[in-house]
Amino acid sequence: MAGYKEYYLYLQRIMPEYLMINILVADDHSIVRYGLKKIIANLPVSATVTTVEAFDDVIVTMAKQSFDLLILDINLPGGNSIQMLDAVKLQQPHTMVLIFSAYDEKIYAIDYLQAGADGYLSKNSTEEETKLAIQTLLNREKYMSPSTRRMILNKLDQQKDSQTNPFETLSIREVEVMSLLTKGIPLFKIAEMLHLQISTVSTYKTRIFAKLEISSIIELLEKIRFYNISI
Predict the structure, then answer these.
(1) What is the pLDDT of residues 163-185, one digit of tens each?
(2) 70 in a domain, yes or no?
(3) Which residues form the Response regulatory domain (predicted)?
């Protein structure tokens, strides 16, 4: 990814007039599509803007053409969940994705950024904020509003200030199961190794996730790194 970014920025620097940028706008409101096209037209870039109204059209269009940036509403016909990001990144991993939504930024921004979006912008944003967000992603950088940035920093501060290390609440057996889970070992194999029933191992996994307040192995690995746990 770093190599792709460096090559892209190199081309943008030495011959911007020849670097045609392809942008896909996905929104089911014509006035929003029109407004974004007008804003993009006023940016100091040469851009071709394609617009679609439904998520199925996003996938079909991306199968036919490469895009530098996708501006995506998260409430589209045919797609209204965080799984849309997985489908988009599977189709074109290098495409930058800017979530452009009327949904409450305080509730949705962090989740979508953690799920793989490169930026989150409220539809209540000013024209200048919208320009800044689009230009930031075209520069292959992440964008978040000042309010979202503050939320993330506050969340990190709260985690660091917490008196209780959640890993200290795990039993010895739960630590054993956790260690094997981080190695990618499936539940049935863990059951064999620890001489337990699969249902018992599954229960341990559920307890571990509950105590650590996580929902995936990826989050488990992130939390282990955050608390500098040796396993």
Answers:
(1) 578 898 899 899 999 999 999 99
(2) yes
(3) 22-138
User: Looking up tokens 């530098």, which residue turns up?
Assistant: 68
Q: Is 193 helix (H, G, I), strand (E, B) or coil?
A: helix
| pLDDT tens per residue across span 126-146 | 999 999 999 999 999 999 998
CA separation for the pair 221, 208 (Å, rounded): 13
- Give the C-alpha separation, 64 to 61, whole Å: 5
Tell me the Cα Rg of the chain: 21
Residue in 101, 201, 114 with CA at minimum distance from that of residue 152: 114
**Pairing of β 21-26 and β 69-72:** parallel
Cβ-based neighbours of 190, under 8 Å, separated by 6 or more: 177, 180, 181, 196, 201
Q: Tell me the two tokens of residue 46.
A: 């040469």
How many other β-carbons are positioned within 10 Å of the β-carbon of residue 199? 10
Alpha helices in 28-169 (DSSP H): 30-41, 55-64, 83-91, 105-114, 127-138, 146-161
Structurally, the chain folds into a number of domains equal to: 2
To the question of pTM greater than 0.85 for the whole model, the response is no
Choose the final residue of a domain: 127, 151, 175: 151
Same domain, 95 and 142: yes
157 domain residue, yes or no: no
